[in-house]
Amino acid sequence: MTRSVLDLVGNTPMVALQRIPENPNVTIYAKLEGNNPGGSVKDRAAYGMIKGALDRGEIKPGTKLIEATSGNTGIALAMIASLFSVPIELVMPEDATRERVLSMEAFGAKVILTPKEQSMEGAIDYAHAQLAKGGYHMLNQFANPDNYGMHYRTTGPEIWRDTDGGVTHFVSAMGTTGTIMGVSRFLKEKNNNIQIVGCQPTEGSKIPGIRKWPEEYLPKIFERQRIDRTMDIAEEEARIMTNRLAREEAVFCGMSSGGAVAAAVRLSRELESGVIVCIICDRGDRYLSSDLFG
Fold first, then answer.
1. N6-(pyridoxal phosphate)lysine is carried by which residues (predicted)?
2. How many structural domains does the chain have?
3. Does 42 qualify as catalytic in the annotation?
4. Residue 66 maps to which CATH number?
5. What's the confidence (pLDDT) of residue 171?
6. Is 256 marked as binding a ligand?
7. 95 Cβ partners below 8 Å, 6+ apart?
8. Domain identity same for 202 and 117
9. Active-site residue (options: 184, 256, 257, 268)
């Protein structure tokens, strides 16, 4: 018997894709992070950051949190904060899908929408401005070691365990970079030959969850040397793969996950053999009001 929703964070399933892979000597595993209770990989970081802050005494029940988010982190923070009786205000661009806003509000969070023209940077600036006025605490997922620390303790070990140590390549979208930083730390300790591949959008492409940050907004937890390679993903390429995943593999996810799988397939063409693990960040029902599956 599971005692708490918190016990359901992590230990997500991993499935071998059957129809999309092109190289028969390369297995591509999809790690289904949408199976977390809040519906995304961000449940891990949210749990790690809130519990870490509580354990260190930086916050206590009743402390008001504020955080900028593109969506999934906000839903996860809203869910975890509610379980610890911590009020939270979430800031994100106004072009976020309606499902995301409603999900955050359902968990009791207050949601502030910033102009879409300012993108994620505008949401970050607004949150920092409110923090400067006082009365808030910011977890700051972009600079918080508990973000990648949770992936070091959970996601990386799960991948190593579920591939019996056979993983040769890890592919992940890069947003806050918490997932890829934590998993890289763990897997490289186990086998330094494992290749860590990060996905970023091509110039002009908008892929929710994948970012190419301006230097001044680059997440402080990001360490470039922990990534062996970056692959640029076009928006159309990510869209097509996201739809293929739903229709051919019954893997229902968002566009950043489609981008990661597209990168994994491209990578597989270069290999004689291998075991690629890619992160499926969330569930596709979070995007039904958008034109992703139209």
1. 42
2. 2
3. yes
4. 3.40.50.1100
5. 98
6. yes
7. 116
8. no
9. 256
